[in-house]
Amino acid sequence: MTTYLLAGGGTAGHVNPLLAVADRIRASEADATVLVLGTAEGLEARLVPARGYELIVVPRVPFPRRPNWAALAFLPRFSAAVRGVAAVIRSRKVDVVVGFGGYVSTPAYLAARRAGVPIVIHEANAKPGLANKLGARLTEYVGVAFAGTPIRHARFVGMPLRPEIEQLDRSAVRAEALAFFSLEADRPVLLVTGGSLGARKLNATILASAPALVAAGWQVLHITGSNSEIVDPGVPNYHLVAYCDRMDLALATADCAVTRAGAATVSELCALGIPAVYVPYPVGNGEQRFNAAPVLAVGGGVLIDDADFVPAWVRSELVTLLGDRPQLAKMGRGAASVGVLDGTARMLDLVHGALTT
């Protein structure tokens, strides 16, 4: 019987691959114990217990970016977090620590190193985060979602996908998916999403462009995000959804997508062969542009800067693209050529490799 401690959280980009690996362990190893290490503030606080896993909460201790009073308090707080994780490893007889990035991963890596427990890392972004860059100094078992990710000991495994995405047969469920969202069967679907929290600029541009997109013969499934203040304008064939718990069905409807370029989003669209317009999030360390680079290189997507994603661009460029169905089909094939459907199995193979050495 193996006890796994999976560490990661904060954003869907960390939580979703963690849950994909957890689900695969639960499905394939009946006697295994899966524990998840996370914070009380991140998405994991809701998603992990809802999926049926035990969440062990540690304090959120971000690395200080500048010398101030918070920086003075960092070291004792961080040391306490490491000791807390080490106590969990000892008391629960953890056999391996698998980290997916985020604030909780660094104390998990250090605690595992002190306890002599194998460490395995998955880096979801093409531009690696600080926690995983530090952790990669402590282990040779580092899986990456994107080939060429600049991190030590990188092995390309792809993105661990949620079972409902990995096993999705888009053709088989398309009729069900269209009915679920009250979409018409004779119009192609443009799926628009800025992620779970939405994207203000992306949402506003699509809302203003809805009449032009519908006039081009398409219907729009626009997932605005739970924090959006957008009001449905009542345009026929424009369907506004604040939050979507069935992204598998949403993806089954999509003939094209307009979206941010988060690692999980890019990976899912490529795995399913869906052509997309990527509008990278303009804040942060620029990792979203790097995430989209492989699919752009094979012609599977189009990238437009957030500042340039305006209604005039939609009317001139996006509407033109949507009118070229052969080009969209070619883009879909390009996306599929760099997509990976078995990232979960590849990542778990890496974990088992660490356990057997």
Overall description:
The protein is α/β, with parallel strands linked by helices. 45% of the residues lie in helices and 15% in strands. It is built from 14 helices and 13 strands. It has helices at 12-28, 44-50, 69-91, 105-115, 130-135, 163-166, 170-180, 200-215, 247-253, 263-271, 287-297, 311-322, 325-337, 343-355; strands spanning 3-7, 33-38, 54-57, 96-99, 119-123, 142-144, 154-156, 189-193, 219-223, 238-241, 256-259, 276-278, 301-303. Strands 3-2-1-4-5-6-7 form a seven-stranded parallel sheet, sandwiched between helices. α8 links the parallel β8 and β9. α1 (12-28) packs across α14, α3 crosses α4 (105-115) and α8 (200-215) crosses α12 (311-322). The longest helix is centred in the first third of the chain and has 23 residues, at 69-91. 48% of the residues are buried.
Annotate the secondary structure layout.
Elements (H helix, E strand, L loop, with lengths): L2 E5 L4 H17 L4 E6 L5 H7 L3 E4 L11 H23 L4 E4 L5 H11 L3 E5 L6 H6 L6 E3 L9 E3 L6 H4 L3 H11 L8 E5 L6 H16 L3 E5 L14 E4 L5 H7 L2 E4 L3 H9 L4 E3 L8 H11 L3 E3 L7 H12 L2 H13 L5 H13 L2
Parallel strand pairs: 1-2, 1-4, 2-3, 4-5, 5-6, 6-7, 8-9, 8-11, 9-10, 11-12, 12-13
Helix pairs in contact: 1-14, 3-4, 7-9, 8-12
Quick rundown:
The chain is α/β, with parallel strands linked by helices. The chain has helices at 12-28, 44-50, 69-91, 105-115, 130-135, 163-166, 170-180, 200-215, 247-253, 263-271, 287-297, 311-322, 325-337, 343-355; strands spanning 3-7, 33-38, 54-57, 96-99, 119-123, 142-144, 154-156, 189-193, 219-223, 238-241, 256-259, 276-278, 301-303. Strand 1 (3-7), helix 1 (12-28) and strand 2 form a beta-alpha-beta unit.
